[in-house]
Amino acid sequence: QAQVVESGGGLVQTGGSLRLSCAASGRTFSSYSISWFRQAPGKEREFVAGINWDGSKTTYADSVKGRFTISRDDAKDTVYLQMNTLKPEDTAVYFCNEYDVWGQGTQVTVSS
After folding, report:
1. C-alpha to C-alpha distance for 14 and 77, rounded to whole angstroms
2. What is the pLDDT along the chain (112 residues), one digit of tens a residue?
3. What is the gyration radius of the CA atoms in the chain, in angstroms?
4. Which terminus of the chain faces fewer neighbouring Cβ atoms within 10 Å, N or C?
5. Closest C-alpha to 6, from 86, 74, 91, 98
6. Are strands 10-13 and 92-98 parallel, antiparallel or unpaired?
7. Are strands 10-13 and 106-111 parallel, antiparallel or unpaired?
8. Cα(24)–Cα(15) distance, integer angstroms
9. Through-space distance between the first and last CA atoms of the chain, rounded to whole angstroms
10. CA 94 to CA 109: how far, in whole Å?
């Protein structure tokens, strides 16, 4: 059974950094694109960043361009989201998505 598990969230001050991890299992990881989404309280889930199956293409929401970097390590079946220069508006639960599979999310809180 395919699954993804997020980790790395936490509390950080404005301007700080965090690295989220998305560990996948249950099927051929290198065949799939992976995306990160986030959902803040009272708001809809929104796309943050995505990486294609071989890592040759990445896409970002305008709100995180230049601050976040998505990458993948197929040897570890893991996708990372490096988040720098964090802002209070980045506060949300961050979810990993692999095709039809979603993780439980990891909380990121940025204090002002």
Report:
1. 30
2. 899 999 999 999 999 999 999 999 888 777 889 999 999 999 999 999 999 999 999 999 999 999 999 999 999 999 999 999 999 999 999 999 998 999 999 999 999 9
3. 13
4. N
5. 98
6. unpaired
7. parallel
8. 29
9. 40
10. 10
| Alpha-carbon gap, residue 42 to 20, rounded angstroms | 22
Sequence-distant contacts of 45-52: CB under 8 A, at least 24 apart: 45/95, 48/81, 48/94, 49/81, 51/79
Chain position carrying tokens 């965090």: 18
3-state SS, residue 15? coil
